Amino acid sequence: MDRRRFLGAACLAVAGAALPARAGEGLQVRLGDGWDEVRALFDLDPALVHLGGLLIASHPLPVREAIERHRKGLDRDPVGYVFAWDTKERVRAVEAAAAYFGTSSRSVALTDSTTMGLSLLYHGMRLQPGDEVVRTEHDHYATWYSLDLVAAATGAAVRAVRLYDESAAAVREEELVERIVGAVGQKTRVLALTWVHSSSGLVLPIGAIDAELRRRGLREGLRLCVDGVHGFGALNAAMGDLGCDFFVAGCHKWLHGPRGTGVVYAARPELFEEIAPVIPPFGVKHTEGLFRSPGGFHAFEHRWALAEAFELHRSIGKPRIAARITQLASELKAGLAEIRRVRLHTPIDPALSAGIVSFDVDGVHPAQVVARLREEHGIVVTRSPYGSRSVRVSPGIMNGSAEIERLLQALHALA
């Protein structure tokens, strides 16, 4: 199949319509079977249960085909192919990203990862001595490390807020909003937040935080910046829903985009003018995010295949994907709650959690849990490299309820 036909087929499969399994072969597909068709897009080892996609994703078929097409063109005529395709494919990637997140293509910059995007964003901010940055104690080290470097270089102060005292599993939305907004003062210039925390699976109510900041008159002169990678591709939201000024994400996790790709969104294109380039961009006279993207040569075939990932997600449907991931995560959390020696760190409430489910098994080190699940049961999960350093499970669009049940049975035996 060509790309257009294949993306359409994936959409029909999930919608429950007729889907040709192969060229010339017809098959009536119901909704449940439709997710099997989505799973078939991935070239995953069938001997394993893959529940670690939050770390790095497998490329679905449309992305693999696009990468291979561009790789062949570059290998045959690298100079000619770059001149023929670079601008076209970068523009197509930015337009696809903008359509996915419901914003203007002028508001999107391309990067190589979440870490690169956060670093470029925070190092590009023109902070001064006396300015304050507020973050939380639970952010990934890509956030706090960048902010500490910026503080050392500019003289700005960084203050960390604790979001909960015991476990994220028991936190309430009102408490989260109050702790964060209550930490913002008149000297606060940057509020650095994480949408979905990869150590606990906690989802911050970014929109509610923005609304409360505005209600208290604290939004003027403040830039609300979000590390959104673990909600990007897993939750159904648009840029306007969040109310942040800058949103940073890698595309090689929940979006299943090409490895080594990422985006930075600005609420308004002119906000990019506030960010001084750290890596020289190609076209600094333009406000648009495309021309504020870091310059230099990148893995062209991967960056050019980014549009296929966005198109695949849109063809399946953002609401349907979010509902599927929420369903699987809810099944997992309900099952974990019944295992006596398991301590769940992720909120049960779907409004405060997404696709990451974090837990510990009493008496078994998290690293041992991860190793034993793989070695004894063929189940791939991960462990957080920071924070609670607990076991993390991340069901995605390639997974099904049977795999969740297989994991739960393995944990019953282990615990």
Topology summary:
Blueprint lengths: L2 H13 L15 H9 L9 E2 L10 H16 L1 H24 L6 E4 L2 H11 L7 E5 L4 H14 L2 E5 L11 H10 L5 E7 L11 H10 L7 E5 L11 H4 L3 E5 L11 E5 L33 H5 L1 H11 L1 H19 L5 E3 L12 E5 L4 H12 L1 E2 L1 E2 L7 E3 L7 H14 L1
Parallel strand pairs: 1-11, 3-4, 3-5, 5-6, 6-7
Antiparallel strand pairs: 2-8, 7-8, 9-10, 10-13, 12-13
Helix pairs in contact: 1-2, 1-11, 3-4, 4-11, 5-6, 7-8, 12-14, 13-14
CATH topology label of the largest domain: Aspartate Aminotransferase, domain 2
DSSP helix count? 14
How many separate domains make up the residues? 3
Give the spatial strand order of the biggest sheet. 2-8-7-6-5-3-4
Tell how many strands the DSSP assignment holds: 13
Please provide the ordered H/E string of secondary-structure elements.
Answer: HHEHHEHEHEHEHEHEEHHHEEHEEEH
Gross morphology: globular
CATH architecture of the largest domain: 3-Layer(aba) Sandwich
CATH superfamily of the largest domain: Type I PLP-dependent aspartate aminotransferase-like (Major domain)
Could you name the ranges where pLDDT drops below 50 across 5 or more consecutive residues?
Answer: 1-32
The percent of residues in helical segments reads 40-55%
**Backbone CA Rg:** 22 Å
Instruction: Please report the distance between the alpha carbons of the first and last residues.
Output: 46 Å
Strand count, sense and barrel status of the largest sheet are: 7 strands, mixed
Tell me the β content.
Answer: 5-15%
Mean pLDDT: 90
* Structural class assignment: alpha/beta
The CATH class of the largest domain: Alpha Beta
